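Below is one such record:
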Amino acid sequence: MTNLSKENQNLKIGVLGSGQLGQMMCLEALPLGYDFYCYSPDEDSPSEKAGARASIGFYEDLSSLKTFLSKIDVLSFEFENIPKSTLEYLESQTKQIQIFPPPRALVIAQDRYLEKTHFRKLGFRTADFFHLTKDTAKFEIAITFPWIIKTLRFGYDGKGQLKVKDENEYKNFLDKAFVSGNEEYLVEEVIPFQKEISIILTRFQNGEIVCYGAVENEHKNHILDLSIYPARIPASLNLEATEMASKLAETLGYVGTMGVEFFLKENHIYLNEFAPRPHNTGHFTQDCQSFSQFHLHVSAITGNFPPTDVRPRPTLMKNILGNEYKESLAIARSLLKDDRYQLHLYGKREAKIGRKMGHINFKGNLEEVNPLFHDL
């Protein structure tokens, strides 16, 4: 158990967003004695079902948001796509309330151009990129095809992305790209990577960092399908990725848990993106026989100390989507006859194709898993 100082035991935690990440934060916070609040436009949310005290309101409604802030002692996020104007307002409130991570970390994370530019300033290798606007569309783009063209903000799980293989496809894209004239995109080099990995780390208020090491990730249709811990990569690359993620957290003045994604190509690491919150690829930590990413996040934002020993054991995580959900749920429940499997459902009201409905963890190595696990 992480040390809990007496003055921090009764803090009221608030989170912007009310989805499954907030739900899993709440499930760690309540047993530690914290009251947990969430704010979002959504009713009957996963967080509320877990015991969070919900306030319903739009992120742009600063009056309602101010009322929400008056109820809590520390604010965090389970969702980074908060309007920039709201983040600027929160930045102005940091003397009145503790906010972790700092709002500027979300400003950078939600803008793909700012994010990639920040990485480059730190000396990290990334895909080549170009900021495409109505004004810059007249310039030649010195990036070899194929490209990925991404909306600058508010994309996830492959949404807001288009692969462009040649000049003709690019011209077709431009014909429809600037309906309002204010649209912005990031044109990005396609990296033919061998593996995708992520680093889940937690930075505490005293500057200490706790990191699990690299996780190996596999996707289907641009959505995370399987996470394998530990990643099957050389120790030198594991260390390099960990050091890069730690440096990024330090430059942001980050407090809390974050996920950092990388591509591996020919023993080179390319930094792809980061998420300023607990991350889907870190869900294995709930059953890795050590501290979960959500426990560490709650400990960090409430001013407690890092644990002295974090030793995760091999664990797999498989996402359960809304596709053929009844069949997947039946398979998942059949696996629970083996106590190495642990099912985590989010309580979402409607199963939709591509929607993350839950996940299942397996305490063990990939070669030990039941073949039915792959059918989910």
